[in-house]
Amino acid sequence: MKSLVLFSFLFLQTLAAQQQYSVTLLTVSDKLSAEENAAVQFLRSRTEYRSNTMPLAKIKQIDKTTDVVWIHLTDSLQLKSVLKMKNELKALRNLFTSGTNILFTDYAAFLPYELGVEKNKPSVRIDTIQNDWLWDKRGFQGFRDHPLFEGMFGGEYVWDPNEDQLLPFIGYFGDQFPSNGKVIAVDKAYVFIYAKTKLVIEHLSATGKMISVGSSVYLSRQNNLRANLERFMCNTIDYLAGRKFSIKPTYWEQFENKPKEFTIQTSPITTSRQRLMSDLPESGLLLENSTPTNQFYDVAGRRALFMGKENGGIDELWVHPYKVMYQYQAGIVLGDTVAWLNQFPVSVQVRPESFTRTYATPLGTIKEIVFSSLWKAGGIVHYQCAQPTQLVIRCKSDLRWMWPYDMNALGDLYYAYDAQLNALHIKDASGDFYTLIGSDVQPLHVISGQLDSVWWKDGRFSSKQSSSNIVAHSALYSLTQENNFTLNIAVIGTNEGKDAALNEYRTMLERPKSEYEEIVNHYRKLLASTVTINSPDKEFNTLFKWAIVATDKFVAYTPGVGTGLLAGYSTTARGWNGAHKVSGRPGYAWYFGRDAAWSGFAIDDYGDFETVRQQLEFFEKFQDHSGKIFHEISTSGVVHYDASDATPLYIILAGHYLRASGDVEYLKRSWGKLKKAMEFLYSTDTDGDGLIENTNVGHGWVEGGALFGAHTEFYLASLWAKALKEMSLGALLMEEYTLSAKYAADAERVQKILNTDFWNDSTKFYNLGKLKDGTYQTEKTVLPAVGAYFNLLNDDKVRFMLDEYATNRFTADWGIRIVSSASKLYNPTGYHYGSIWPLFTGWTALAEYEYGNSTQGFMHIWNNMHIKNYWALGYVEEVMHGAVYRPTGVCPHQCWSETNILHPAITGMVGWKPNAIEKTVDFKPRFPMQWDTVEVTNLKVGNSVLRYTMKRSRQKTEYTFVLEQGSPVDIYFAPEIPAGMTITSAIVDGKPLSIESLTQRGALAKPIIVGLTSTITITLLHSGGIGMYAVMPQPQPGDSSAGYRIVSTSLNGKVYTVVVEGRSGGENIFAMNYFDNTVDRIEGADIIPTNQPGIVGLHVHFASETTLYTRQTITVYLK
């Protein structure tokens, strides 16, 4: 009896939790159309609905307990038929006013007007849309969010058929709005929001709701996004039926787009001696330029991003998700005018924590420090003058919400100057987006308003009115002995409202030094806890640290979105090819799927596991219901799923993180997400060839242009093989052995396809991609380097590819092109067909280290590093010109450009491949021949931290491993052995060890296995050996490539052959280390003796040819 009672109780609880809603579909007649039939089937397929179908003529028979009445009209003829039914329409109106909830879809969106519920009649527009993969998909975008988009991140794509179409839109276009209804959503297509096409409208009666969806609801037609459409429809029906949602509804509103003044007065700040910013701590890194040339700079915290030009001002300040301030300038009053500081000689200092200018002015030195808070929503501009100075600042604000929302999406600006706080308040209509710009010194004069320009003349501010929805602000300050000739300007912007803005504003101005110290301490801790390389090359050591700092600056938090890696920094000056009148795209300062994954490998490498785990969880938070991982998330919260590579990269990064950190708990928590991603990937293999696809899924690497169009790219297939391998390990750890075996077998199959089907015997290269008809794109590209990095390719084939990458056809003095300069597609400024990306250069270096071409690999790391010395000082550009040493990309500071120094340096050169699951490390160091000593610290595997040193002489190399903290680790040690070197003996902590000199890809074929519990020293005594110093080009801005490089080396008996390239008619000295060998003679180069035993220079004179570069062979005969 007790069991029966318990069962009944649980049954009733389950029924309550799974409440059913009653939905009645009103049809035009007893004879249902194909769409009406499909709507019936849709409702019946949902267990949460009790559905009923009834012709409109019987509307008076509708049960009053019906939760939702739905009319679905997909053509104008059906609408005409309904409009003739006057009595039925009157009854429908009565149902609504009496509290029944109604849903109108497609042409039925005219009915609110016809019923008299809406005064403004909607319009119909029919667009011709060509079938174009997923670029033609359509959907709806809410304003911020609405319950209709629960689980859809504020908007959703719902319609994507595989056919050309005439697609009707019923709604309000241009400046037209419904008079009585609210706009829930507008049109969205691909990466664009069309705010002037208002399609989803909500009307309210005293007790009921009415929603009209004016496009894209087709249930009988083929639709790649059918699941999305059904989720949207279910949310809509549930919302109408009264289901409680946690999401607060927001709506698109009609605005004048004109600033409005309001009044506010708050209590003043309380200043302290912190405002002087004296005796500031430093993080330890500093780059200086005494003659800047107006290059880009940025200062980034976790929320705020300052950007500008070296010589003066702040071009833009973004605090995600919007632009807080722009066109900030400071100047001094000289006579009756203002001389702006960017007109004066200036020197700049770049630190991880700040950007400092020192101006030489007629009033003496003026020091300006710009820094962002680490976590707060803004930063400080600090001024220190040498004598009494009248200093003027001016700036503008438009609260530009990040793309794809348009420039006036937030509506009218509201502004007020707060004399008590010395601050300008600017907010949007909701009051959520709130900006404060103010100071710790009371200004003598202030002007604010809808102004285009402001100037100082005759002792006062004058201005010119603007017609734009902007607020300009200017203030004059007197810096005197009384205020210590010091001024702090604070700028705060947040989407969390006035109270949050005021709290952070007060903190910044009352304790500016504490804020500065926090960010200094952050970078001190970062540099002290992550991988450090100490080599004989001090510049390399320093720039390596800068790469870690520069990467860390991309970790960003956006309220309402979360924390993840942004992709690249630049101002909106580059625009969006006219897509927006005022661009809302600050470089690529939003969240990207592929960018974050490719960057995450390096962050794992240098030991910041927390950031990588956070990024993986960010992927999972925004994973599509299908399992797909996003391509882009704007910090405004709009999500796009346009890439085919983000999903396998998420899986690969999860595997990389798992091995580096040993975080099995993460695997357990995320296993369902990872399997869902795999299910999605398997579903994209529509032709059953074992390969995931680009077609109708998204771009892989190439997003457009002449190289675009593969059904499956080699690059994508390589990611698939690697993802399968990672998931095989994951399934094994989750004890899903059958699944693990399946993944492993599928990985083996894909790897075989890469090495057979994609291999082109005539070009001796891997094909770019497989087309839908089974033929291949044969263009030689850098993309197969990804397969090589993952160790998927056959050695006998890879050597052709790597030799080609080492030539001047692919490599310039600053990196690797995507295509050969000999290609008919080559354009040195072509984004995807000729420019040089540090990303490509890093991929190539990884491939070169994996397959033993370490000399070329080190040069490619250096190519990326060297860029830090120019343009955005301390940072690496997104894209470089293919023929001239200058940038051609959007972003002067790009995340994966930084990480493609770090990842090949740690994984390739240091040779660090941890496996925390098994508490082991595969360690294959391949340091350049010119380094005879090196120390690497903070190498992490799980909770263990190691330090490693190497000392190399002509006949002995000593390696020391120290376990600094954590659990013991087994090391599988296989260092690179120079060609021809014989290991005469090996000693481990004073005890001899028998090993073989046999090498594989230039490293010991059989690793030395040692258990590290504290300190271990391995000493190799050796004889012979020969190798080349890596070439380290030093191009200057504007240079063309000199082209002196080592293409390949080989040793056959006592004959060492070096193939080099250089400028036709030019000359270059290459360096060679022959250890304790004796050189008999050298052909193809003149010997340049050095004062270092075993080291000689090889002076090569390149023949004068008609080609720009020529090749020469150096032959070294050893005795």
Question: Can you describe this structure?
Answer:
With 1119 residues, this protein is an alpha+beta fold. Among the domains are: 19-241, Rossmann fold, CATH 3.40.50; 260-282 and 294-520, Beta-galactosidase, Chain A, domain 5; 781-889; 913-1023, Golgi alpha-mannosidase II (Immunoglobulin-like, Sandwich), CATH 2.60.40.1180; 1042-1118, Polysaccharide lyase family 8-like, C-terminal (Chondroitinase Ac, Chain A, domain 3), CATH 2.60.220.10. Helices cover 24% and strands 33% of the residues. The chain is built from 20 helices and 66 strands. Strands 1, 2, 3, 4, 5, 6, 7, 8, 9, 10 and 11 form an eleven-stranded mixed beta sheet that branches. It has a ten-stranded mixed beta sheet with strand order 12-25-26-27-32-22-21-20-19-13, covered by helices on one side. Strand 19 (346-350) and strand 20 form a beta hairpin. The longest helix has 20 residues, at 664-683. The radius of gyration is 33 Å and the shape is globular. The termini are far apart. Mean pLDDT is 96; it is low at 4-17.
